[in-house]
């Protein structure tokens, strides 16, 4: 299996060294979505495309993350229904789980993916939630 990296609109792959003039760089050097065989790996903070500013609320951060996943999966030929696993990182799980759970149920109304929640002390940009996902693309 080969690794396939495609740019996700609004989340172009740049670092501080290779960034075009005036483009807001991400923190660190990483890809937003990678496909290897039928597997698609994606991860995101709740930052808005192009500005990379956090959502105004934890609920908005969660929505931004799942909308990013929708776009990233589409680029690789998959949908949200193809997500099989979520790993969710929280700076305050007790406070913020309710918001993630509300949004997650909207995006996965049936047959939700296997999910794990992990408490952490800090996330980039001061985010409250960060999520990574694994999807299995449909046969083509």
Considering DSSP H and I runs of 4 or more, what fraction of the residues is helical?
Answer: 10-25%
Q: Which word captures the global form?
A: globular
Poorly predicted parts: 13-27
Mean pLDDT: 83
CATH topology-level name: 60s Ribosomal Protein L30, Chain: A
User: Radius of gyration in whole Å, from Cα?
Assistant: 15 Å
Query: By helix and strand content, what is the structural category?
Result: alpha+beta
| Integer tally of domains | 1
Give the topology string: H per helix, E per strand. Answer: EEEHEHEE
**Biggest sheet features:** 6 strands, mixed
So how many helices?
2
Question: Care to count the β-strands?
Answer: 6
The rounded distance between the terminal residues' Cα atoms is 15 Å
Task: Name its key features.
26% strand, 6 strands, 2 helices, 60s Ribosomal Protein L30, Chain: A
């Amino acid at each position: 299996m080969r690794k396939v990296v495609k740019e996700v609109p609004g989340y172009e792959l740049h670092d501080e060294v290779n960034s075009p003039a005036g483009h807001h760089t991400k923190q660190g050097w990483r890809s937003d979505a990678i496909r290897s065989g039928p597997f698609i790996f994606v991860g995101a903070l709740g930052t808005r495309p192009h500005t990379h500013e956090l959502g105004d609320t934890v609920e908005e951060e969660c929505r931004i993350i799942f909308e990013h996943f929708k776009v990233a999966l589409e680029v690789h030929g998959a949908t949200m229904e193809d997500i099989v696993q979520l790993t969710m990182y929280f700076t305050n799980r007790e406070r913020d789980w309710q918001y993630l759970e509300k949004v997650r149920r909207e995006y996965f109304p049936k047959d939700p993916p296997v999910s794990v929640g992990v408490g952490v002390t800090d996330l980039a940009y001061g985010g409250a939630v960060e999520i990574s996902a694994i999807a299995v693309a449909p046969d083509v």
